[in-house]
Amino acid sequence: MAALFAHFGKSNLAQIKEANASLSSQFTTLNAVFIGATAGIGLGTLRAFAKHVPRPRAIILGRSKAAFAPVLEELKRSNPNGEFEFIETDVSLLKNVDAASKTITERMPEINILCMSQGFINFGPRQENSDGLDVCTSLRYYTRLRFAVNLLPHMRSPIARVVSVLAAGYEGPLVEDDLELKKNYSIGNAAGHGSTMTALAFEKLAQENPDVGFVHVYPGLVRTNLMVNSTSGLLGIFMRWVVTPTLGLFCMTPEDCGERIFAYATTAEFSGAGAEGEKAGVRKVGGGIAKGQESVVKGAWFLDWDGKVIGNEEVLAGYRKKGMGEVVWKHTEEEWQRVLS
Fold it and tell me: What domain of life (predicted)?
């Protein structure tokens, strides 16, 4: 059993690292925006970006510039040729997303990669913020899609990728008359809604933006403090001293997971529908990470932790047939308009 646990996360890792190491032969510099990269998976991906790009330029968004200062200095030491800038903001609120997007595009007119991993697990009832949205769902869906839409006009480079790290493959049924889950909130409904709405929205955006790859990733089990930071009281103590150490015995490290996410953000396999093969990213390695599998809607990629194409087609196929993607998108735009007007 211990050997089985130790193997988790190692499958095709050498192939992933080979793909990442070859990036410097194709790109001297890349520009990336990281949201939710102050710890865990996002930080692991940011470190991989700093490691594999000769002259990386990154804008990182988070709540506390002071708390992130030591990591910022570490990144600058790890790659003195890189530029790393931190913007302090609360990305759970849509007005902050718009303000931050304006600042980002002023300072970085061309964006290659948008990587989003912000969020937490809500084990309690619905927590409504000042936007009138559930905080957890806002971080998982509404603000992520808003960042994507705001920054897409600046993503017209040879490699352009929107990456959302959440729960690809765990798409669940939607409560169609309560998409914002005001009356039907639960941990399960929130998780299913976030994944399904992301999938349908990414498929729409991929069709409208064929030069951009839209990647939704399930990261697998990763050794982070997500569960500890998402809980308090006795549950928090249990998560900190029992669950997290136990999972740590067989979880991936944030560094290994970061290498994976970075590969999915740069390999030619997961580019947009209109991208020109290997010009769109780093070359395919060893027959390809996805092993020849294709996305159902070109340019919209739903990936398991090891890069295999995944997606709950029992749910998604039916929603495509009934045009649920347009319903979700209309709802999304109406919520944005309600909040921002």
Answer: Eukaryota
Let me know: does 178 contact 129? Beta carbons within 8 Å.
Answer: no
Domain-embedded: residue 3: no
Taking CB atoms within 8 Å and a gap of at least 24, the contacts of 185-191 are: 185/125, 185/126, 185/134, 187/121, 187/122, 187/123, 190/122, 190/134, 190/136, 190/137, 190/140, 191/167
Residue in 34, 291, 36, 24 with CA at minimum distance from that of residue 139: 36
Nearest to 217 by CA among 259, 276, 174: 259
User: For 151-210, what is each residue's pLDDT tens digit?
Assistant: 999 997 778 999 999 999 999 999 999 999 999 999 889 889 999 999 999 999 999 999
What type of residue is 233? G
Range of the domain at 184: 12-223+254-340
Kindly compute the dihedral angle of the four CA atoms of residues 41, 158, 18, 60, in this order, to the nearest 10 degrees: -20
4 in any annotated domain:
no
Predicted structure pTM score: 0.90
Residue-wise DSSP of 64-110 = -HHHHHHHHHHHHHH-TT-EEEEEE--TTSHHHHHHHHHHHHHH-SS
Please list, residue by residue across 31-55, b when 16 or more beta carbons sit within 10 angstroms of its beta carbon and e when fewer do.
Answer: bbbbbbbbbbbbbbbbbbbbbbbee
171: in domain? yes
Amino acid identity of residue 282, one-letter, is V
Give 120's contacts (C-beta < 8 A, 6+ positions apart): 136, 139, 226, 229, 230
On the CB side of 18, how many CA atoms lie within 13 Å of its CA?
11
Q: Output the domain CATH number for residue 297.
A: 3.40.50.720
pLDDT tens figures, 186-202: 988 988 999 999 999 99
* pLDDT tens per residue across span 13-47: 999 998 899 998 888 999 999 999 998 999 999 99
Number of domains in the chain: 1
Instruction: Report which of 206, 169, 167 is spatially closest to residue 314, judged by C-alpha positions.
Output: 169
